[in-house]
Amino acid sequence: MRQRWRVTGALAGALFVVNVVARLIIRVGFDDADTTAADRVSLGMFVVIGVGLAAVAFAWSRSRPAAEWGADIGAAVGVALALTVLVAPLLVGKNPFGDGAGTFFAQIWLYAAVAGVGVLLGYLLAVALGLDHRSGVLRRYAESKAAKPHKPVRR
Q1: What DSSP letter does each residue of the chain carry, written as one string?
Q2: How close are the terminal C-alpha atoms of the chain, in Å?
């Protein structure tokens, strides 16, 4: 159980680090007037988060039931989301609520949407290829039923 939460915490930390790096790039590399560059870096950050979560969902869905890895990814995304919205702005010298409530909640919804789409795409790819845990269990069941000789019926 401890190993399971350690991996979940590492995933949350990785998602948080991606956001902090993007914020630092925006702060150090661009001035405040250049919103186009900041938007591009933010878009890149969301692509990295979405693709990363898709890869994690694909890998974890191969060996574990969906309820188990889904809870782990959900917990990791929840912690990373809280850290991203509340702590990451403080690390670059901004107030988390400085741009108003609309921006604050827009960050939450956008992060949740990107994370959800990433996880969904990773899982659907595993299901489409027949590599998810459930498909493997059903394949092994079908093979075991086909391998047993048919018992004769006594009359």
Answers
A1: -HHHHHHHHHHHHHHHHHHHHHHHHHHHHS-TT-HHHHHHHHHHHHHHHHHHHHHHHHHHHHHS-HHHHHHHHHHHHHHHHHHHHHTHHHHTT--TTTT-HHHHHHHHHHHHHHHHHHHHHHHHHHHHTT-SHHHHHHHHHHHHHHHSPPPPPP-
A2: 53
CA–CA separation, 26 vs 37, rounded Å? 8
Distance CA 50, CA 115 (A): 6
* Structure-token pair, residue 94: 């901004």
Assigned token pair, 101: 């409530």
Q: pLDDT digit string (tens) for 96-111?
A: 888 888 888 999 999 9
Pull the structure tokens for residue 108: 């939450």
Q: What is the arithmetic mean of pLDDT over 48-68? A: 94
Lowest mean pLDDT across 1-10, 77-86, 142-151: 142-151
Summarised one tens digit per residue, pLDDT across range 79-94 is: 999 999 999 888 887 8
